[in-house]
């Protein structure tokens, strides 16, 4: 009897977990095995974590809301296996015409793969200008966190420090960026623009000088800058040429690595010209899912990833926010509609539902 073909997914964030869930329903137990490996044994819904850290609203600290276990992830438990481990390296079978290889954990345990998908995300602080441009979510987190804090602490001084002259990325129109600034100032949130603070003081702090020489009075400084790709194991395993200088994974439109047809990537680490947002990763998953199933059937990967239009929804506490969709002439939504779409529950219920909760 022929051995099973093995699909291994490294990273169980939004894209990795959703691909694993979809494959667990699509794969034939007799022919295939599915292994999901993650350094965390839970999923963290980042937008909801901002409210969980500041408020008791919605009991978000309970399991199955912002922090979601993986025990209900697989639609068919006889197909999927979850492994809590950190990956140290990828060892491709270069001598085999069939491709494949194995991944090795930090403990030395090996998992063979026929197809490998590595959507492992980002960590740490941004270290270069090029990385800052790619990690465009950082200012969104700062703005939303400020709104959550203001909801609970009405009299506290809240300051957002941002390195550019306007909030958000220049992907979005100035009118939107200025509108967000106006909304925050209206809630008595102080903005320090064209400024930054690279060395974050520990708690409790006091008056701190920014890099531009401005004094910011605060007891607590919270870094919300974007992270750098957690892809060093790819460079050490497959060579530096598999990554960009900033550590993002180079892929073809099929989301296969350029020199490895049996390895896919998606999510935060993808080298693709688009703003990195959770909303985009559903299309990453659809593309990889179609191509993985095609390869397993002996066909070539034919699905090609196409970016969706740019859009952004920025909450400002429970009741407010601002949204923009780059369609037609550019559609902008204010407090009421943004609240109905996002701010009221920050997609907590929807995110948990995609993991079986």
TrEMBL record:
<dbReference type="GO" id="GO:0005737">
    <property type="term" value="C:cytoplasm"/>
</dbReference>
<dbReference type="Pfam" id="PF07992">
    <property type="entry name" value="Pyr_redox_2"/>
</dbReference>
<keyword id="KW-0560">Oxidoreductase</keyword>
<dbReference type="InterPro" id="IPR036188">
    <property type="entry name" value="FAD/NAD-bd_sf"/>
</dbReference>
<feature type="domain" description="FAD/NAD(P)-binding">
    <location>
        <begin position="140"/>
        <end position="273"/>
    </location>
</feature>
<protein>
    <recommendedName>
        <fullName>FAD/NAD(P)-binding domain-containing protein</fullName>
    </recommendedName>
</protein>
<comment type="similarity">
    <text>Belongs to the FAD-dependent oxidoreductase family.</text>
</comment>
<keyword id="KW-0285">Flavoprotein</keyword>
<keyword id="KW-0274">FAD</keyword>
<dbReference type="GO" id="GO:0050660">
    <property type="term" value="F:flavin adenine dinucleotide binding"/>
</dbReference>
<dbReference type="InterPro" id="IPR023753">
    <property type="entry name" value="FAD/NAD-binding_dom"/>
</dbReference>
<dbReference type="GO" id="GO:0004174">
    <property type="term" value="F:electron-transferring-flavoprotein dehydrogenase activity"/>
</dbReference>
């Amino acid at each position: 009897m022929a051995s099973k073909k093995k699909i291994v997914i490294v990273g169980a964030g939004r894209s990795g977990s959703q691909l694993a869930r979809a494959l667990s329903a699509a794969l034939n137990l007799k022919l295939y095995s599915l292994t999901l490996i993650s350094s965390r044994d839970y999923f963290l819904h980042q937008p909801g974590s901002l409210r969980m850290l500041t408020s008791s609203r919605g009991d978000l600290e309970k399991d199955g809301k912002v922090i979601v276990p993986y025990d209900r992830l697989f639609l068919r438990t006889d197909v999927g296996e979850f492994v809590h481990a950190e990956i140290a390296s990828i060892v491709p079978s270069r001598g085999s015409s069939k491709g494949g290889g194995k991944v090795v954990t930090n403990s030395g345990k090996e998992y063979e793969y026929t197809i490998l998908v590595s959507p492992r995300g980002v960590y740490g602080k941004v270290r270069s200008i090029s990385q800052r441009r790619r990690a465009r979510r950082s200012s969104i987190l700062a703005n939303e966190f400020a709104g959550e804090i203001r909801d609970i602490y009405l009299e506290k001084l809240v300051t957002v420090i941002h390195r550019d002259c306007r909030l958000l990325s220049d992907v979005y129109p100035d009118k939107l960026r200025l509108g967000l600034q106006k909304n925050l100032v209206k809630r008595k949130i102080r903005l320090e623009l064209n400024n930054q603070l690279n060395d974050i003081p520990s708690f409790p702090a006091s008056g701190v000088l920014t890099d531009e020489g401005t004094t910011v009075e605060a007891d607590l400084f919270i870094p919300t800058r974007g992270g750098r790709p957690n892809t060093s194991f790819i460079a050490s395993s497959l060579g530096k040429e598999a990554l960009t200088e900033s550590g993002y994974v180079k892929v073809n439109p099929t989301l296969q690595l350029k020199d490895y047809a049996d390895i896919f990537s998606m999510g935060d680490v993808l080298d693709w010209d688009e703003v990195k947002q959770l909303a985009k990763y559903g299309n990453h998953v659809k593309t990889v899912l179609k191509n993985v199933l095609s390869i397993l059937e002996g066909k070539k990967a034919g699905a090609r990833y196409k970016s969706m239009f740019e859009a952004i929804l920025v909450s400002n506490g429970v009741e407010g926010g601002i949204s923009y969709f780059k369609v037609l002439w550019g559609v902008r939504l204010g407090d009421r509609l943004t609240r109905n779409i996002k701010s009221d529950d920050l997609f907590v219920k929807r995110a948990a539902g995609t993991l079986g909760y």
